[in-house]
Design brief:
By secondary structure, the protein is an alpha+beta fold. It is built from nine helices and seven strands. 52% of the residues lie in helices and 13% in strands. The longest helix is centred in the last third of the chain and has 28 residues.
């Protein structure tokens, strides 16, 4: 006679299903939130480390396993400290927002920017440089800037010279801060960017330090117009290219679009191959 008690673990109760569903929903919500912030790149790095840790355990690579496991013990505390503002903001959104919104939210990130949008940005930058109107325009690329966007005012408007000029016009409510551009739209204005700590304060003003700071923590291109000198500069990868002309700006955006087209073609070829 078989004792059915030994097979109890095979039977899943309704409570177990509800428990699994709730945990799955929470994990899904967290992943959706992380994808909208700069923490997504860090999250992917953690996943890679976990995979390496598992392989080290299976293959009995004791030194690698010891190093990574001990790094995780210290790293978890470091992550909590580094991303304390993001964690607090996530908890606030979880309390204020509609939980079901996470399941219908679409990812509208694009890796390229249209020629029409580039034309409008350049015309606005040139006009503001001539008038010595300060401006800070962040063009999002692969690293999501949702955490920056949440510090400003939602716009979600079509990119145009007139709209950009009006936003940065002195004494207007939105002029002090940065504009975030994503998916060929002005997503938000008056956004707060982190100031770079790797440049001397007397070499750059606050606007230029913010441009460099944003490019240090993401792969965004940041166009900055100086109200003192009437110059257009662009920050990328923590470096500031000062006093650039229209041709240089177009070449930078063209290189971004070319890389995006190649990536899309490769992805489609892989998909068709399958």
């Amino acid at each position: 006679m078989f004792d059915l008690a030994y097979f109890d673990f095979l039977f899943i109760s309704l409570n177990d299903l509800v428990d699994i569903f709730i945990i799955a929903c929470l994990i899904y919500k967290v992943i959706l939130w992380i994808k909208e912030t700069r923490a997504w790149a860090l999250f992917k790095g953690v996943i890679i480390l976990l995979v390496v840790l598992s392989l080290a355990s299976i293959c009995n690579l004791n030194t690698i396993y010891w190093l990574i496991s001990n790094a995780f013990n210290v790293g978890l505390l470091a992550l909590i400290v580094l991303f304390q503002p993001e964690i607090r903001k996530a908890l606030e959104q979880l309390g204020k927002g509609n939980f079901l919104d996470a399941f219908v939210k679409k990812n509208d990130n694009e890796q390229s920017i249209s020629d029409a949008s580039v034309n409008e940005i350049i015309k606005a930058a040139k006009f503001m440089a001539e008038k010595k109107t300060g401006a800070l325009i962040v063009i999002e690329r692969e690293v999501p800037l949702g955490d920056f966007e949440q510090t400003g005012i939602l716009i979600d408007g079509i990119i145009s010279k007139q709209l950009l000029i009006n936003i940065f016009e002195d004494k207007t409510p939105l002029h002090d801060g940065a504009v975030i551009i994503r998916n060929n739209k002005i997503k938000a204005a008056a956004c707060i960017l982190p100031l770079s700590q790797n440049v001397k304060k007397h070499d750059f003003g606050t606007r230029h330090r913010a441009a460099i700071g944003a490019s240090e923590v993401s792969d965004a291109y940041v166009i900055v117009v100086s109200e003192e000198r009437g110059e257009i500069s662009i920050a990328k990868s923590g470096k500031l290219i000062k006093n650039i002309d229209e041709r240089k700006i177009r070449s930078i955006f063209a290189s971004v679009n070319n890389k995006s087209v190649k990536r899309i073609k490769l992805w489609r070829n892989d998909k068709n191959a399958k």
